[in-house]
Amino acid sequence: MRNSRFAGRLPYRRPLPTVVIGGMIAVLISLVALVSCARPAAGGSGEGPGELVVYSARNEQFVDPLLHRFAEETGITVRALHAGGSAVNRIVEESRNVQADIFISNDVGALEYLRMGGHLQGFEPEGIESIDPRYRAADHSWFALSARTRVLMYNKDLITDEAMPQTIWELANPTWAGQFAITRGGNGSMIAHISALRYEWGDSKTAQWIAGVMENAGAIMQGHGDIRRAVGGGEFAFGLVNNYYYHQQLLEPTHNNVGVLYPDQGEDEMGAVVNAAGVAFVAGAPNAENARRFLTWILRPENQREFSYASMEVPINPSIEAVGEAAAISNYKVHSMPLDRLGEVFEDTREFIERAGLALELR
Ligand SMILES: [Fe+2]
Prior knowledge:
Number of helices: 11
Helix content: 25-40%
Structural class: alpha/beta
Number of domains: 2
Bound molecules: fe (ii) ion
């Protein structure tokens, strides 16, 4: 059972035992979640390259192969905690006794929220100029590597591109009742999307949109993987997802007659909402030198590429071509909100969504 998801694929060692913090509080980090990915240390004398502790909110299957390769190339022992949505709170809670060196996130809001709270530190890694300033903190305490765009993925057997709603606002229109699926309110991409809508529309129009969409949605699902399968399988004409789910569905052996629509592309329209996945340097990182090494390493073009390609997202660095036929972010109109604004509303939007009546979790 242990690590069965990786059996035969990745050179995993056994999970580490309980981590004792501060000599007082034993924090039981999930043994399944905490993995070690380095070769056995040569001497075991306590010297050598040491370790790197990575907290990740990103899908584990996208992150682990990269971390394994870093461990192999450097000899540094990488310990990864896949903490999902709780990674941010954990970093905040541990600020007086910092455990993490690096944080990996799918959401610029989470990265900027930590920076604003003083939980990150700056650094000038080699290669940082390959990332557009729009996608990094001014002090480089976080930088994004791959973009994810909110799109409508549709089933071509059920609807044509022309017949599809062309804007996100239209999902609140009763015309579409029962025809589409969305995720629960607590999904990170949904939260960031609604933050962008608040920025564009203000709170009352956004609340109105949420109410309309809830009324119309044929299903409110746990995650975007559920939506892409349901749309591919013909349960709904379309779904609101991140763009890479479309590319994932195309790879399915069946149920892959799907199309993608980038919404709000008209002249007066807001543009598609983009978010990004990236990495951050935790303030007070116990293994700061190894963290700097990792940040420099991840900026090497081949590693940027792998970071994006693992999830079929689109690289932010324009010199790295997009995976398959994915549209580069320069190919469509993107919403103008500076991404770091997501940090200011990171906590608030969750409450806003709940107040508007969309449950954060499925019951
Ligand atoms: Fe996702």
